[in-house]
Amino acid sequence: MKVILFGASGMVGGGVLRHCLKDPKVEAVLSVGRRPSGVADPKLRELTVADLFHLADHADELRGYDACFFCAGVSSVGMSEDDYRRLTYDMTIRVAEVLEELNPNLTFCYVSGQGTDSTAAGRTMWARVKGETENKLLSMGFSAYMFRPGVIQPAKGVPPQSKWIRAVYVLMTPIFPLLHAVAPNSITTTEAIARAMIRVSEGGPGPHVLEVKEINA
């Protein structure tokens, strides 16, 4: 399997990347982003793209892939709905349209979030926009899977980028085992997300919207 990965410089994408590089089912990974991932591996190739709205300019380097693991995203904190929509809905769909044209048999795995609003009509801004993004991806011509993690335990050595979120995760580290034991449907790991992405991209059975329970299973 050949995978295109977006968001490798982030916590989720970084963890997914590291698992893909270890998994023998993944033959090659193309990491696409505004900056290098900082990871070196014979299976990994990196493509630096300053603006993903212009991804089509790199079409020759994006052909021949079986799956896209889209782990890129921004926090809605402090953002207007228009700005958040542009970086969440507009950018994701533009990337998906380019990849669908170049790889018609692609499987597209999108990291959304627990609480995403499938009706796209609720009161919570980020949940509406994520829901609209999911709905559009599911209507496209490729096979698409929506991943809705809750609390995510990061891979070792791949902390969150935000300083305050990183501080929160440091405080949470001792209680991760307890959360896995008492609230297994609320917490997952970047490794579990990667494994599930690989599984569905192989044609594995399961729903096209995966909550934490399905991701862990």
What does this structure look like?
The chain has 217 residues and is of the alpha/beta class. It has seven helices and nine strands; from the N terminus they run E-H-E-E-E-H-E-H-E-E-H-H-E-H-E-H. The chain has helices spanning 11-22, 81-102, 125-138, 163-172, 176-182, 190-201, 212-216; strands at 2-6, 28-33, 44-48, 67-70, 107-111, 143-147, 151-153, 187-189, 209-210. Helix 1 (11-22) links the parallel strand 1 (2-6) and strand 2. The model has no long low-confidence stretch (mean pLDDT 90).
Structure keywords:
seven-stranded parallel β-sheet, 217 residues, 38% helix, Rossmann fold, two-stranded parallel ribbon, alpha/beta
